[in-house]
Design goal:
This protein has 111 residues and is α+β, with helices and mostly antiparallel strands. The protein has one domain: Alpha-Beta Plaits (2-Layer Sandwich), CATH 3.30.70. Helix content is 13%, strand content 21%. It has a two-stranded antiparallel ribbon with strand order 1-2. The chain is elongated. The protein starts with 5 loop residues before the first strand and ends with a helix.
Length: 111
């Protein structure tokens, strides 16, 4: 996909950074990203429904339940990408996320 360039109201160019991935292992299911997204990109699901077999951290998981965030990693909800292709690249989800779960990139990277 070619690079997409937008314009601000003042005429300045910018490159939208679209959501590429959401790290469900880090997600605490707070729903902040869901609330700031106007495009229906996310969906909150039961954490137990997510397959973490590809867990790169194993028993040394730095994002486990030992971070005192008050969420149980075994029973809580987790955010997933429902419709990534509807993302407009505003990065509001990333800016509000307390656990830095998102990876963003330009249209050239996302395509």
């Amino acid at each position: 996909m070619p690079e997409i360039t937008g314009l601000t109201l003042g005429g300045a160019e910018y490159t939208p950074q679209f959501v590429l991935e959401l790290d469900a292992k880090r997600c605490i299911g707070c729903g902040r990203c869901f609330r700031v997204c106007s495009r229906d990109v996310f969906e909150l699901v039961e954490r137990e429904g997510i397959d973490f077999d590809d867990d790169p951290y194993g028993d040394d998981d730095p994002y486990g339940d030992d971070d005192d965030d008050g969420f149980s990693d075994d029973t809580s909800m987790v955010m997933t990408l429902k419709n990534r292709l509807d993302c407009i690249g505003c990065e509001a989800c990333s800016k509000i996320c307390p656990k830095k779960c998102f990876t963003h990139g330009s249209a050239a990277v996302a395509g």
